[in-house]
Each structure stands twice: as C-alpha cells, then as structure tokens.
Amino acid sequence: MWFIRRILKVSWKDKNTNDEGFADKSYRVRRKEIADIAFEYKHGQSIPRVQYTDEENATWQHVYVRLKELFPTHACKEHIRVFATLEEEGGFTEHQIPQLEDVSNFLKRKTGFQLRPVAGLLSARDFLASLAFRTFQCTQYVRHGAKPDHSPEPDCIHELLGHVPMLADPKFAQFAQELGLATLGVSDEDIEKFATLFWFTVEFGLCKENGQLKAYGAGSLSSYGELANCLSDNVTVKPFDPPTTAVQEYKDDDLQPILFVVESFDDMMTKMRQYVATIERSYDVSYDPYTQSVNILDHNAALEGVSRGLQNDVDTLIHVMNRFNKPV
Ligand SMILES: [Fe+2]
C-alpha cells in the first residue's frame, strides 16, 4: 500500500524500482508530463485538463466497475449518497476519468473543499496543513495499466473514488478540516501521530451503521481488494481511541490487518477534539471562511472576532427557531 508514502516523504523512484511503471519508459514520460501540470500550477488557476488515453480510461473503468459492485454492501451511507450525486451531476462515469477541475468545482459547491494538483511527493506536515484550508492535494496521473488493482503511489483513481465522495459530505469535510487545523504549529512527533490518525480514519476508517461495520476510509473505498478485506474476518477491529490509535503500527505494503471503528462521525469528531485539546502547542487557531485564511488566536482582538461570529450565528439560530415555533 502506498498512501502513506506521500506522508512519509519517500519517493517513487527510491521505493519502486521493480514496479511496472518504473520499468516502462513511456509510462515514466507520461507521469512526468502530468506531474509538470502540478509543478506549474498556481493557486487560483483552473486545473489544466488532461487528455487521458484509452488505456488510462480502461484502467479507470476496470476499478470503477468492480468497486461499484461492492459499494452497496461495504461503503458507508455517506459515500453511497455522494457517489450517486457525483454520477448525476459531477461527471462520474465508468467510461472516462473525470477532470480535476470539474470535480473541484463540485466539491466547492458541496462543502467548500477544493482540489489542488500535486505531483505526488509531499511531507506529512504540508499535506495535513492544506486540509486546514479545505484544500486537498490531489494526484492527476493514473496507475500503470498492467496492474489496475494496485498502485505503488496514490493516483487519481484513489483520490476520485475514495477521497472525493467523503470530502463532499459536510460532516466528514468538517472532520478533515479540523484534523488539518490541529496539526498547525505542533511538534514533528505529534505530526507523526496525526499522520497515523489520518491513516486509521481518512484512509482506512470503519464506522457502524445499524450495528454493522461499513467503510468510510478512502484507501478501502478505492481498492476492491482492501474493500473486501476490511469487512472480513482477516481484520482485527478495535474501537477508535485517538491516544492509542495514534501510536498503532500499520502496514503500508499489504492488506490492512488492524482497523479502527467509530460509532458515528459525531463520535469520531468528539474523540478527536478531546485528543487535540491534550496536544501542546504555542497557539490556537480558527479558520475564517470569508478570507479563507487561518487566524492565530493569541490576542484579544482575535478572540473578540471569534466571539462576534459565534454571537451572530446564535442570534440567527434563535431568530429562526422563534419563527418556526410561531403559529401560522
Ligand atoms: Fe489517500
């Protein structure tokens, strides 16, 4: 499994000299061509469109069709709901790979998240920090066609089928952003713990629905091998508990043997907030959606700004509740 390589700064060249993609010169050229889009991309620009080849679209279709067979029984209801919407209005079809620009616009309409093209190599700190700004660093290239069920690195099939549907769910998007905000200004040791929490939630998390386990992690939802495995007897399932989950060792080169389950997204959010409150850092932050910036809460004026925003929301809530309760 490759997802964490982006997080642990290990390069494709360093780790995968035997991979089909590395051995195929034309594939390496194609990878560079698509990576250059990310290297040249500037914030605020439209994401350039990629003319995917028939082979790349066939790889996408191979994975898409197989996963769709498993989603009804294995995916959480949030993923199923958004995936249907993506097929209706987000350009998702088994026949061709959607363009990041279109998907990013879909996400902006749903939760304010946006995609930013990335070549594939990022530190955990940089990757997690971008979540604080509701930005998801997203690869645009496709895995090698010789192994459609496996990619040595995250590719757009993983991002689009696994991450995007979950980031279009308001509650999950809030969780992802709070996880990103929690990493700002923490030590390298805590970054490792947050990266591990990311692994066991955003990448491979399980949740409960009517007493049954379902997958909400993108690593499971974008790989039919992982998706079948995650609800099988091969996996030891533990209750999500951030202090212990954060130090759980994991495998990044095989099917997951240990996973963590949350009772609900509310449960996950509550436990994560309690954990974040125990992490030492020199300042607290809040996100300003109007300026899409992060404010450091280290002086009274900043606190007054947060307080004023909260008061406005409470006033609006009281007003609406009074109106609803008023007899017509
Ligand atoms: Fe991922």
UniProtKB/TrEMBL annotation:
Q: Which UniProt keywords apply?
A: Iron, Metal-binding, Monooxygenase, Oxidoreductase
* A GO cellular component annotation in the UniProt record: perikaryon
Keyword DNA-binding annotated? no
Q: Which domain of life is it from?
A: Eukaryota
Q: Entry's InterPro entries?
A: ArAA_hydroxylase, ArAA_hydroxylase_Fe/CU_BS, ArAA_hydroxylase_sf, Aro-AA_hydroxylase_C_sf, Aromatic-AA_hydroxylase_C
What are the GO BP annotations of this UniProt entry?
aromatic amino acid metabolic process
Residues forming the Biopterin-dependent aromatic amino acid hydroxylase family profile domain are 1-325
On whether Membrane is a keyword of this UniProt record, the answer is no
Query: Which residues are recorded as binding Fe cation?
Result: H158, H163, E203
- Note the Pfam families from the entry: Biopterin_H (PF00351)
Q: Which Gene3D superfamilies match?
A: Aromatic amino acid hydroxylase (1.10.800.10)
What terms describe the molecular function in GO for this protein?
A: iron ion binding; tyrosine 3-monooxygenase activity
Q: What is the required cofactor set for this protein?
A: Fe(2+)
Family recorded in the similarity comment:
Belongs to the biopterin-dependent aromatic amino acid hydroxylase family.
Q: In its UniProt entry, what is this protein called?
A: Tyrosine 3-monooxygenase
